[in-house]
Structures are given as structure tokens and as C-alpha cells.
Amino acid sequence: MAQQAYLTETDDGGSGPERSENRIRRLLDRLLRGWRGDRRIWRRGIVSAVLAVLAALVMLLHSHIPNRVGNLGSLTETFLPWLGLLVPVLLVVALVRKSATALIALVLPVAVWLNLFGGLVTDKTGGGGDLTVATHNVNADNPDPTGTAREVAASGADVLALEELTAAAVPVYERALSSAYKYHAVEGTVGVWSKYPLSAVRPVDLRLGWTRALRATVATPEGPLAVYVAHMPSVRVKLNAGFTAQQRDHSATALGTAIAHEKLERVVLLGDLNGTMNDRSLGAVTSQMRSTQGAAGSGFGFSWPASFPLARIDQIMVRGVEPVSSWTLPRTDSDHLPIAARVKVTTSATSS
Fold this sequence. Notes:
One of its GO terms (molecular function) is endonuclease activity. This is Endonuclease/exonuclease/phosphatase family protein. Pfam families: Exo_endo_phos (PF03372). The chain is an alpha+beta fold and about 350 residues long. The chain has two domains: about 35-120; about 130-350, Endonuclease/exonuclease/phosphatase (Deoxyribonuclease I, Chain A, 4-Layer Sandwich), CATH 3.60.10. Helices cover about 35% and strands about 20% of the residues. The chain has twelve helices and 14 strands. It has helices at about 15-30, 45-60, 70-80, 85-95, 100-105, 105-120, 145-155, 170-175, 245-260, 285, 290-295, 350, and strands at about 130-135, 160-165, 185, 190-195, 200-205, 215-220, 225-230, 235-240, 240-245, 265-270, 290, 315-320, 320-330, 340-345. It has a six-stranded mixed β-sheet. Strands 5-6-7-10-12-11 form a six-stranded mixed β-sheet. A two-stranded antiparallel ribbon has the order 8-9. α2 runs antiparallel to α4 (about 85-95), α2 packs across α6 and α7 (about 145-155) packs parallel to α8. The protein is elongated and about 75 Å long.
């Protein structure tokens, strides 16, 4: 007796796979209605297609945008990830205009953006590590330094860097952090608080005429670690002068030189660099160190402005140390978000 195959009947009288195929077919028919037989789908949307190609070229060739006029190259690199917002806008325009040309052109900026920033979207956070570090530009006009100190100390950081300290606020931070940190040092407007002994503390010359950076050795249980705390000069965007960052750029070169001459193999840089990892003007520093956010973070980790973060200008960078995780901390009364990272000081390179 021949076997007869049966299909499970669905509410619309068709089998499960058939119903699914019918739904997809109806959706495609709805989306493509009006496109079939329309020869103008290749002629419409030329402007949108050109904009898509230009966006891809800016992202792909950003390093070739000159800085001679208003530091346009650095300004573009600071907000480079946000060019990806053009894609959904142009996609909607292409669909409304029923332009096949614009849709195909969108493949270019999508591919370039994913190549540049796709790795930041994924979660690279790991476990383990033996040292937690954090940094925060506390804002010179912070109305509640005591509360801010307690909030960042709650992160559990073993080493904490603070920037934009005022002479009046330093004693307040010292009192508020004394129970969590036995050791600390302040040089000019920056300071470092540590649960482990500090030594060889000295200011770092950023060619400004006053102190906005320091260097210290932290005696971690895994061995000595060189910690740099820095606050680069501010940058401004002006209509008549563009992206003014000359002082910041000179200071970055000075900081990069100091780190290049560091004798300890394991180095951590904490601070407000007033620039992103993409900004070529910070190359003297970024070329020799790794971003903990880029190596072991989740997302972009934007830190400024705190009310609506648009860029990560606060940085934790390492050399000879393995990043394990990196994240932003809850907002305080500062205009910056504090950031933290977990690192492995004992690496295979240093322990062998």
C-alpha cells in the first residue's frame, strides 16, 4: 500500500512553508509595486547616488583631507563615525524616489563604514584582568566635587585619574577619596589616586607654560606600571577660523615624545586628550599605544558632551598591557562622562 504524505493545513488553507513564501512574495510585491516596467528607476536619484559616493570617499580618504584650512581634516576625523547617519536618510530618499541607482550607490558608504567602525559595534568585552583604571575630567566649575569623587570611586578603580582640578577643589577631592585611596599625587590641574604605592611622580611638560600632565610609577602586585595623566588643551570650532587646535597638537607631540622615552615597558595613559583616536593630530600618541575601548570595549564609548555624547575625547590607552574590557561610567556633575577599563598587567610578553 503506497504511503501518502500529508501536509499540516494552516488557517489560510496552505502549508506552513507555502504560507511563509506567500508572505514574502506579497511583501516584495508591495515594495516593488510601481518599480516594474519603470525605466526611469535608473535615471532618478542621481543626486542621492552622488551624495552616497561622496560620503564613502570622505570616510575612505579622510586622512588626505588637508589640515591647512581650519584643521578641516582633524574636524572631519573627530566626528567621522557620524557620517554613517547619512545612510538611512539616503535610503529613505532612494525608496521614496524609486531610484535603483541610489540604492546601489548606498552599498559603497555602508561597506566603508563597516570596514572602519564595524569592529566597534560588536562587544569585545572579556573577563579577568588584574587592574581597573578610570579617568574623569571633573570640570573646573563642578558644583559638587564631593559627590563626583564618590561616584567615580564607586567604580572600584584601583588607579583613578582626575583632570581639570582647581586649587580650591583639590582638598575636597583629597578628603572625599582618602578612604578609598591611600596614595595620591597632584601636579598642576591633574591628579592620580591609587590603592598601590606611587613613586617617581613628576610633571610632564606639554609646552603650555603650566602643568597639565604628570607621570607616576604605580607599584601594582604584578609589578611596576608607568601611569601618565594628561589634559590636552581645548579645541574650538569657530566660523572664522575653523577647528582651532594648534596648542592641542603641539602638546600631543610633547606627550608622545615623553611616552616614547618611558623606560618602563608597561604604560597606561589616562586623560582628556580633546581628540579621538581617528584624529591624525594625536598620532604622536596613538601611533604607539592601544585604545582600551577599541581593543576591548562595547560600542563607541562616547564621553563628551555628557548630556548627549558625540565623541570619545577622553581616553584610556595602553602599551605593554593587555586590555580586557572598557566602558563609560554614569554621569556626574561634569560635562564629561568618566570612563574605565580593566586591564591585564601580567601579559605573556612581560611574564616570560
